[in-house]
């Protein structure tokens, strides 16, 4: 067996695969997010406990030895640990908005753009640079007590293996990594006022970060590889490796990724350039802050169950009877394909005649428009794969194909876990048939008439967005 571990924002999963890539079983556990006053945090012990629980449950019910395992997980945020690898405080999530003011300040004084021009990463409130700077100002004792500021999967890897603090080039890409040298840019550390905290940054493995499990969750001695984090892991799991090809992940985060060998740091500073295990190869990423989380909020607010979504989409025509949604629901605003910490969601065109179906369809359409904006900015020219929880809705997947105006290669199952295994196999020199492992389960073609209608809707969406950004004081950019 090959096991992939995916430590997501709200769910921890472990999936087992055979040598052909067939999924043998999946175990999942929900983990909590604590939200208050713009702060979004997670209990590290709860997260790690969920990892051990899913691994115990999975390995107990599946026969055969575990040949190797790969680990991936949510990116960004700050996971402070002490010298023993234990939590110093709760993990600060990538969804956290407390550093909003710092990012606004850096946008105004040029720091934001200076960092982007050096690293290709646009800092946002939930990225490690602003969060460390915020903690340095407001909770210096926590940083004093920490020996390392890790990313999620790095914390889990250290506790599973006992390995010293470390990370891989993908997680390190935001916001301190020089994409040319694949090492930390100390000039960026200085720009963000963190030179005196430089020692907290975990050493970067390029690309080998591997160890043997200690016997907690995985059998003792199991070979385990750390990274890449969830976005590039999903790209691997979906077979998106050729320049120009793209992936849309319809998950909590709406992530648009395009494989590239180029490094163009001109244009509006937004998104990031994610380094991969192959030097010279990277992913141009536009990870919008909110994907399925926006729809979840609308469903909860209107009392609609997830199982009703397809029927409501079928009952409401394209255009949602004039209801429109700008889907910027995150407390930290937006980060792709532009950075606007103060931007918030807008619902317009609602009347007493509007139905729950109108609100649901308008939200799904708004998320689709945001995805199209991100994919265009990322430079999509080739095929497009799609994965994530949102693709479990056939009606929403068809709607996305229409809004995007292109065929979608649907990749089902635990795509991030699959990519984690493929990365681990590459690092350990275990040959696997990657084409077979990443074969799409379906191809959804757009309807030409609806695609034309949505092309007009997309233009109107961009116009509304320009006005919304102007109202929040964020200058509309060139994307």
Task: Provide an overview of this structure.
With 479 residues, the chain is α+β, with helices and mostly antiparallel strands. The protein has two domains: 231 residues, Nucleotidyltransferase, domain 5 (2-Layer Sandwich); 149 residues, ATPase, nucleotide binding domain (Nucleotidyltransferase, domain 5, 2-Layer Sandwich). Helix content is 37%, strand content 20%. Strands 18-19-17-16-22-23-24 form a seven-stranded mixed beta sheet, with helices on both faces. Strands 3-2-1-6-15-14 form a six-stranded mixed beta sheet, with helices on both faces. Helix 13 links the parallel strand 22 and strand 23. The longest helix is centred in the last third of the chain and has 25 residues. The radius of gyration is 21 Å and the shape is globular. The termini are far apart.
How is this structure best summarized?
This is FGGY-family carbohydrate kinase. The protein is built from 16 helices and 24 strands.
List keywords for this structure.
FGGY_N, FGGY-family carbohydrate kinase, 24 strands, Nucleotidyltransferase, domain 5, 479 residues, six-stranded mixed beta sheet, alpha+beta, seven-stranded mixed beta sheet, globular
Query: What percent of residues adopt helix (DSSP H or I)?
Result: 25-40%
The CATH class of the largest domain is: Alpha Beta
Going by helix content, strand content and strand pairing, the class is alpha+beta
Per the principal axes of the C-alpha atoms, what is the gross shape? globular
**Number of continuous helical runs:** 16
CATH topology of the largest domain: Nucleotidyltransferase, domain 5
Low-confidence stretches: none
GO molecular function, one term: kinase activity
Organism: Streptomyces doudnae
Keywords: Carbohydrate metabolism, Kinase, Transferase, Xylose metabolism
Enzyme class: transferase
């Amino acid at each position: 067996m090959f096991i992939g571990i995916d430590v997501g924002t709200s769910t921890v999963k472990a999936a087992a695969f055979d040598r052909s890539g067939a999924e043998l079983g999946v175990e999942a556990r929900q983990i909590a997010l604590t939200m208050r006053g713009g702060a979004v945090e997670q209990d590290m012990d709860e997260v790690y406990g969920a990892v051990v629980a899913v691994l115990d449950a999975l390995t107990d019910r599946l026969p055969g030895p575990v040949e190797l395992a790969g680990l991936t997980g949510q990116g960004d945020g700050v996971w402070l640990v002490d010298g023993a690898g234990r939590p110093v405080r709760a993990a600060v999530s990538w969804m956290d908005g407390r550093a909003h003011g710092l990012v606004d300040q850096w946008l105004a004084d040029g720091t934001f753009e200076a960092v982007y021009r050096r690293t290709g990463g646009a800092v946002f409130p939930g990225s490690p640079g602003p969060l460390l700077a915020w903690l340095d100002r407001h909770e210096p004792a926590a940083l004093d007590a920490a020996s390392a500021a890790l990313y999620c999967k790095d914390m889990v890897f250290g506790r599973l293996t006992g390995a010293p603090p470390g990370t891989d080039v993908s997680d390190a890409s935001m916001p301190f990594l020089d994409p040319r040298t694949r090492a930390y840019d100390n000039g960026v550390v200085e720009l963000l006022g963190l030179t005196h905290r430089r020692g907290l940054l975990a050493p970067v493995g390029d690309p080998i970060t591997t160890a043997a499990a200690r016997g907690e969750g995985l059998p003792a001695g199991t070979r385990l590889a750390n990274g890449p984090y969830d976005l590039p892991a999903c790209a691997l799991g979906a077979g998106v490796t050729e320049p120009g090809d793209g992936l849309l992940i319809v998950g909590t985060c709406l992530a648009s990724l395009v494989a590239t060998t180029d490094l163009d740091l001109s244009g509006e500073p937004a998104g990031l350039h994610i380094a991969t295990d192959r030097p010279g190869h990277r992913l141009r990423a536009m990870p919008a802050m909110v994907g399925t989380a926006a729809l979840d909020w609308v469903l909860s607010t209107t009392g609609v169950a997830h199982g009703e979504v397809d029927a409501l989409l079928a009952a409401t025509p394209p255009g949602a009877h004039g209801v429109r949604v700008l889907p910027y629901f995150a407390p930290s605003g937006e980060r792709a394909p532009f950075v606007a910490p103060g931007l918030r969601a807008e619902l317009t065109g609602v009347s007493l005649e509007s139905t729950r179906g109108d609100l649901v369809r308008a939200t799904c359409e708004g998320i689709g428009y945001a995805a199209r904006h991100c994919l265009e900015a990322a430079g999509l020219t080739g095929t497009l794969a799609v994965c994530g929880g949102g693709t479990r809705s056939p009606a929403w997947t068809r709607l996305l194909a229409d809004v995007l105006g292109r065929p979608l290669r649907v990749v089902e199952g635990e795509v991030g876990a699959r990519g984690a295994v493929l990365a681990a196999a590459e690092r350990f020199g275990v040959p696997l048939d990657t084409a077979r492992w990443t074969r799409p389960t379906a191809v959804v073609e757009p309807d030409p008439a609806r695609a034309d209608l949505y092309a007009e809707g997309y233009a109107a969406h961009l116009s509304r967005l320009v006005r919304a950004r102007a109202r929040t004081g964020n200058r509309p950019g060139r994307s």
